[in-house]
Amino acid sequence: MERRPSLVAMVVVAMLSLSSCCCCASSSAGGGQQLHPVILIPGSGGNQLEAKLTEEYSPSSLACRVWPLVRGRGGWFRLWFDPSVLVAPLTRCFAERMMLYYDIAADDYRNAPGVETRVSDFGSTSSLRYLDPNLKLLTGYMDALASTLEKAAGYEEGRDLFGAPYDFRYGLAAPGHPSQAGSAYLERLRLLVESACAANGGKPAILLAHSLGGLYALQLLARSPAPWRAAHVKRLVTLSAPWGGSVQEMLTFASGNTLGVPFVDASIIRDEQRSSESNLWLLPTPKVFGNTTLVVSEFHNRSYSAKNVTQFLRDIGFEGGVEPYRARIRPLGEALPEPGVPVTCLVGTGVDTVESLVFGKEGFEAGPVKVAYGDGDGTVNLASLVGPIKAWADSPAQVLEVVELPGVSHSGILKDKSALQQIVRIVDAINLNTTGSNYLRSF
Ligand SMILES: *[C@@H]1O[C@H](CO)[C@@H](O)[C@H](O)[C@H]1NC(C)=O
Ligand SMILES: *[C@@H]1O[C@H](CO)[C@@H](O)[C@H](O)[C@H]1NC(C)=O
Ligand SMILES: *[C@@H]1O[C@H](CO)[C@@H](O)[C@H](O)[C@H]1NC(C)=O
Ligand SMILES: *[C@@H]1O[C@H](CO)[C@@H](O)[C@H](O)[C@H]1NC(C)=O
């Protein structure tokens, strides 16, 4: 609770640093006028991912050899999401296909041998509206958001509304390290932004990014020259961006996170989750969490802050993650450059969020014996959600708005009525060129 007043203070700072203000446009957004195109950038696990198996693939079981029985043209099938992951012998097939490998010689991540992956329909929102088109009700992801933009803000799929799905298992690396998959995505995203602008009378785009998508979007901006940013990006709008990672991610690495789904073997899922480069990116950063003890291991008689993540990775038995984390990933979290375009950060607050964990004498495998909760969006800690905001607000050149959504959870921000209303107001305001006028007053 201590942090709450400081968030409000930051918001006040943010308001003061708004460059110009408050000229009320007389036209109304949508009404036949050209809108700023919106590009939706999903978070981790937030779009469908397809796979195909080649001769190099060596299945761990007969089930994995034959599953899935029905495959599409060229042998492609939906790897994520498919409910078969919940069925015991098939969980293992899923995990061995999702697994990434760090190639030390190449200093880069690779798919499992014999597994090719792709996203379908890049540029369209189709693969991020639902994670499984056959289970729309259960696996809706950005559909509510996209539909709201269509119905309430005048957007139209393919005209001025686009989606940028990606292979979310991969991350990006600090300068000097190759990152083939992640860099290829940034390049695709850049071209999509350019073509979206060109198709809309040259109007710069609004990047609307959820969770991990916000980290990718920031890197796209940081790696683009200022004139490109000014010409192509009107505003970055982040939803629940985990700027400094989350403590919950340490639980994922230690014991596996089945997201509350019963019957799933956590240890199988844990190994797959550990292998994901983007999961390393979501570990708590020293910049945001400092010296605070986040995890205690009674077995090792040690406590770990965000500065001890390498030791933590060793102690949980994941030595393979230490070097890529240290060299490639940690520097990304330490430098959170100014976006260099106006930014609106929407953050959910007031939802119990894992703040510290105690693992007992049984070790990490057995799961935590004590969990303490603090403020955040249920997944990401408040300190992380507002991580770089003070620094950005202090910069005279950086236009910044922060919108707090009390009681809105990490993924609820894509569905809750109140959150969707705020997003529409923000997008409308950008299209009317009156950003920052009224909605900040709710603080
Ligand atoms: C963190 O700990 C180091 C020494 O372990 C100390 O030098 C530093 O001042 C501490 N930082 C904070 C923010 O407490
Ligand atoms: C645990 O570490 C503390 C110091 O960090 C030490 O005083 C204590 O004896 C250790 N306990 C065990 C059981 O090793
Ligand atoms: C954690 O990091 C701090 C500061 O770098 C260091 O003093 C401490 O010994 C580390 N603890 C462990 C368990 O590695
Ligand atoms: C928005 O308003 C500012 C000043 O109020 C103006 O300089 C700018 O050109 C406007 N942008 C658009 C896209 O209309």
TrEMBL record:
<dbReference type="InterPro" id="IPR029058">
    <property type="entry name" value="AB_hydrolase_fold"/>
</dbReference>
<dbReference type="GO" id="GO:0006629">
    <property type="term" value="P:lipid metabolic process"/>
</dbReference>
<dbReference type="Pfam" id="PF02450">
    <property type="entry name" value="LCAT"/>
</dbReference>
<keyword id="KW-0732">Signal</keyword>
<dbReference type="InterPro" id="IPR003386">
    <property type="entry name" value="LACT/PDAT_acylTrfase"/>
</dbReference>
<protein>
    <recommendedName>
        <fullName>Lecithin-cholesterol acyltransferase-like 1</fullName>
    </recommendedName>
</protein>
<feature type="signal peptide">
    <location>
        <begin position="1"/>
        <end position="21"/>
    </location>
</feature>
<dbReference type="GO" id="GO:0008374">
    <property type="term" value="F:O-acyltransferase activity"/>
</dbReference>
